[in-house]
Write a structure and sequence with these properties.
Structural class: mainly alpha
Order of helices and strands: HEEHHHHHHH
Mean pLDDT: 87
Distance between the termini: 115 Å
Largest sheet: 2 strands, antiparallel
Length: 250
């Protein structure tokens, strides 16, 4: 009886050992992902994964996202057993292609926002100039009517200056947005769009799949207006602003 138990135990141990040998055999590294078959040694498949990760379509990944992808890649490539390696490799590929889907969404959403702002800026251009003219007219009239009322004149003058800065900033922004043509604005962006996209990418990525595209667009619209306005403030010279609709007020 003891002999039989010994041989049964030995058989189970040898079977488990042989299973481990099969698991680490190079021929056991094989799996399919998105119609692509990955097979060969662990080094062969890791090289395949690395080439995909470093391909041009995944260039420009923000540092925060790149760090997470690198962690998943390293976690996969160090796994010795095929079943574990396959699981980790798929997790990495899921994250990588999820980023690709994110980029498509991000570019599309930002493009839509830019197009909307171009229309909005054209529509409110006259309104902002009219507000400035109105503020300026009120100040000029009070200066003639009651020049000693310096306190009120100063207050109204501040309002006039704010209106002027809003108009000048708007014109600076409008000129930038008017120059944006087609989807190229987000796929091959200028320095301003590049800076904005990079600054917002990690946060938008965290919203991807959690918020609707419309909610993401609303966020992007608010942020890009603030971003461009801050850029405009340091670039404009309000006193050199040319009024475009002055004849319409006379």
């Amino acid at each position: 009886m003891k002999s039989l138990l010994f041989f049964v135990t030995l058989f189970i141990s040898l079977h488990a050992y042989n299973q481990e040998l099969e698991d680490i055999s190079p021929n056991r590294y094989r799996f399919k992902y998105r119609s692509i078959v990955y097979k060969g040694s662990r080094m062969d498949i890791t090289d395949q994964l690395r080439k995909i990760k470093n391909s041009p379509k995944f260039s420009g990944i923000p540092e925060e996202i790149q760090t997470e992808l690198n962690k998943l890649f390293i976690d996969a490539k160090k796994q010795a057993f095929p079943r574990v390696y396959r699981k980790k490799a798929i997790l990495f590929l899921d994250a990588l292609y999820n980023y690709e889907e994110f980029v498509i969404m991000y570019n599309g959403a930002l493009y839509d926002v830019v197009e909307k702002l171009k229309r909005d800026m054209k529509r409110i251009d006259f309104k902002l100039e009219r507000q400035y003219i109105k503020a300026k007219t009120i100040v000029d009239r009070l200066k003639k009517k009651d020049p000693a009322n310096t306190k009120e004149i100063d207050s109204l003058n501040q309002e006039r200056q704010k209106s002027l800065i809003r108009l000048a900033s708007h014109r600076w922004m409008k000129k930038k947005f008017d120059g944006y043509k087609g989807i190229n604005v987000v796929e091959n962006p200028d320095e301003l769009i590049t800076e904005f996209k990079k600054a917002e990418a990690a946060y938008i990525y965290s919203l991807f799949g959690k918020k609707s595209v419309d909610e993401i667009k609303t966020y992007l619209e608010n942020e890009i207006i603030d971003f461009y306005y801050k850029k405009a403030i340091v670039e404009i010279d309000p006193e050199k602003l040319d009024l475009q609709y002055i004849n319409k007020y006379n």
